[in-house]
């Protein structure tokens, strides 16, 4: 009699263990998504860090954008979603430049942020200073003409 195990059985055991681990990892990722702020709809979070602060009468969004100029950035407000995109191209060198190493190339990022309250789109202000983009979003005034509804 042969004491060796069947290789197919070993592969099936390995695949079963892998499936259990993947299910466990997926559940933990879902839990992390449920627990983290639902304000960020970005694809990957990526290399561009972002802060959102509530300053009573306005929201302040601060984004690290080192090496980006204001012309490299695009900011859009669509409803309650703030979109920030940046793209910069490699600097054009002279034809006579002989690079020994060249790693700086086209870089881009895209971030989307769901704002927790309505903002006054006409009063939004943005500036870039020392590689930091600051977007000030004044909160929209509460509707003074709101009507109370009686419950029967």
UniProtKB/TrEMBL annotation:
Domain named SHSP: residues: 41-152
Xref: Gene3D superfamilies: 2.60.40.790
SUPFAM superfamilies for the chain: HSP20-like chaperones
InterPro entries associated with the record: A-crystallin/Hsp20_dom, HSP20-like_chaperone, Small_HSP
Database matches in PANTHER family: HEAT-SHOCK PROTEIN 20 FAMILY MEMBER
Family classification: Belongs to the small heat shock protein (HSP20) family.
Entry protein name: Hsp20/alpha crystallin family protein
Organism name: Salinadaptatus halalkaliphilus
């Amino acid at each position: 009699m042969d004491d060796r195990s069947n290789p197919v059985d070993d592969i099936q055991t390995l695949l079963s263990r892998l499936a259990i681990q993947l299910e466990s990892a997926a559940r933990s990722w879902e839990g992390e998504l449920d627990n983290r702020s639902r304000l960020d709809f970005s694809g990957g979070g990526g290399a561009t860090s972002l802060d959102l602060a509530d300053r009573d009468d306005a929201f302040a969004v601060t984004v690290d954008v080192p090496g980006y100029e204001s012309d490299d950035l695009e900011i859009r407000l669509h409803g309650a979603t703030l979109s920030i995109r940046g793209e910069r191209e490699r600097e054009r060198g002279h034809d006579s430049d002989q690079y020994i190493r060249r790693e700086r190339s086209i870089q881009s990022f895209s971030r989307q942020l769901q704002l927790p309250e309505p903002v006054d789109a006409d009063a939004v202000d943005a500036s870039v200073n020392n590689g930091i983009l600051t977007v000030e979003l004044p909160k929209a005034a509460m509707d003074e003409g709101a009507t109370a509804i009686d419950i029967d």
